[in-house]
Amino acid sequence: MSSSGGDLGRALCVVTGASRGFGRAVAVDLSRLVRPGSVLVLVARSVDDLRALQAELARPEAGGTGLTVKCVEADLAQTDGVERAVKASEEAAAAAEIEHMVLVNNAASLGDVSRCAQSFTRMAEVDSYLSFNVSSALCLTARLLQAFPRRPGLRRTVVNVSSLCAVQPYPTWVLYCSGKAARDMMFRVLAEEEPDIRVLSYAPGPLDTAMQTEARSTTADPKMKQMISDLFAQGRLLSCEESSAKLMKLLLEDKFTSGSHVDIYDV
Ligand SMILES: NC(=O)c1ccc[n+]([C@@H]2O[C@H](COP(=O)([O-])OP(=O)(O)OC[C@H]3O[C@@H](n4cnc5c(N)ncnc54)[C@H](OP(=O)(O)O)[C@@H]3O)[C@@H](O)[C@H]2O)c1
């Protein structure tokens, strides 16, 4: 099998927010697309959920033979959480002859969507949101790219899990929209700077996850709230598995323009 064909090669895959929702589905799919000798690093705060996924992937039916799965309990809102994720990735990959480094920056939070932009007067509150949702994604990416520098035979792919909110303003979603827009631009800059790195911002569509439930119950803007409630009531939410499959298709085909924002509905 060629590593540019039906699989991602012997890879180190780091997935943030792998304990539930979209990140979990992505981790499962990646485990099926890598070659024996690969390493999958699962990062989140809920280590029990990560361990449950690790156990699931170890079952023979999961087909992950020859795959090392490492759980990293880390709060990515904290500097030491980012460091822990990097250190664990370096240790896990040390003995493996990795030919592909895949980082999926998936972890994120919705922020307070119960208020308008003009109510955000406390810098500490805004900083705290941006620290986790923007800064940690850049710092984790930068640290991993340094830890796995350019060398012959090593492919490097960085995915930013984005949103329609990166390109579309939604009332009462100022933190989330700003964070997603900033992340998209960060990864566009990275793609400009490093042509050898494959960079993708993927908007996964409206997913049936905990974040979506939170959005349904806490969004203040009445039109936005109605739109989100309709998606749910009309059965128009997508499953994480369906959306992750589209992301895998993009990664396997490897034809996307590096740095681009690709929406699930474009795939
Ligand atoms: N749901 C949607 O409709 C939708 C639409 C467009 C884009 N997205 C994007 O898709 C991605 C996944 O969303 P989701 O719906 O699956 O969300 P979710 O169900 O809320 O899951 C979020 C994940 O992030 C992790 N996380 C949260 N805070 C963390 C922290 N401080 N440190 C480390 N990990 C943290 C959570 O794990 P722990 O709590 O265990 O730490 C969890 O695994 C996000 O980037 C989101 O913005 C979602």
TrEMBL record:
<dbReference type="InterPro" id="IPR002347">
    <property type="entry name" value="SDR_fam"/>
</dbReference>
<comment type="subunit">
    <text>Homodimer.</text>
</comment>
<keyword id="KW-0963">Cytoplasm</keyword>
<dbReference type="GO" id="GO:0005737">
    <property type="term" value="C:cytoplasm"/>
</dbReference>
<comment type="similarity">
    <text>Belongs to the sepiapterin reductase family.</text>
</comment>
<dbReference type="GO" id="GO:0006729">
    <property type="term" value="P:tetrahydrobiopterin biosynthetic process"/>
</dbReference>
<dbReference type="InterPro" id="IPR051721">
    <property type="entry name" value="Biopterin_syn/organic_redct"/>
</dbReference>
<dbReference type="InterPro" id="IPR036291">
    <property type="entry name" value="NAD(P)-bd_dom_sf"/>
</dbReference>
<keyword id="KW-0560">Oxidoreductase</keyword>
<dbReference type="InterPro" id="IPR006393">
    <property type="entry name" value="Sepiapterin_red"/>
</dbReference>
<dbReference type="Pfam" id="PF00106">
    <property type="entry name" value="adh_short"/>
</dbReference>
<dbReference type="GO" id="GO:0004757">
    <property type="term" value="F:sepiapterin reductase (NADP+) activity"/>
</dbReference>
<protein>
    <recommendedName>
        <fullName>Sepiapterin reductase</fullName>
        <ecNumber>1.1.1.153</ecNumber>
    </recommendedName>
</protein>
<keyword id="KW-0521">NADP</keyword>
